[in-house]
Amino acid sequence: MFNRNGSSDGNSNYSRVNQDDFSDEDHAGGPDGLVRNQQELMRQQDEGLDMLSASVLRLGEMSMGISEELGQQNKMLDSMETDLDDAADNLDMVTRSTKEFIKQAGGEKNCIIIIALTIVALVLFFFLIYG
After folding, report:
1. CA–CA dist 17, 76 (Å, integer)
2. pLDDT tens digits for 112-123?
3. Is residue 41 within 8 Å of 17, Cβ to Cβ?
4. What is the greatest pairwise CA distance in the chain?
5. Cα–Cα distance, 57 to 40 (Å, whole number)
6. What angle do CA 94, 96, 102 make, to 5 degrees?
7. Contact assessment for residue 48 and residue 4, using Cβ atoms and an 8 Å cutoff
8. How far is Cα 25 from Cα 1, in angstroms, rounded to an integer?
9. pTM to 2 decimals?
10. Separation of alpha carbons 57 and 64, rounded Å
11. How far apart are CA 107 and CA 47, in angstroms?
12. Which end of the chain is more exposed for a tag (fewer CB within 10 A), N or C?
């Protein structure tokens, strides 16, 4: 049997009830005192069960909320995965088109000519300013 424990440490709200606490010697009323003690124990047990029931209800509500949240997040992840697949396909298509365009435009030769002309322009600009 358990007895309500008034401790505020948060560990346990109940402690074991010693059977010696309810011996016939302690009850001047005889059987009536024993019945009162049993009724008190039943009241305490009912309080404990009520608290347990309330805790179970709260946990049930929390688990339903978590379940709904996970469902929404799964939908969002599925949508994001589809969008990423579409973006990857588009990027592959653009990359292939760019490679074909570079090949048709003269490829690496034109790139080297552009780099060389840029260097010449920078050198001339340097001489113009500091020369």
Report:
1. 53
2. 888 999 999 999
3. yes
4. 121
5. 26
6. 100
7. yes
8. 20
9. 0.44
10. 11
11. 84
12. C
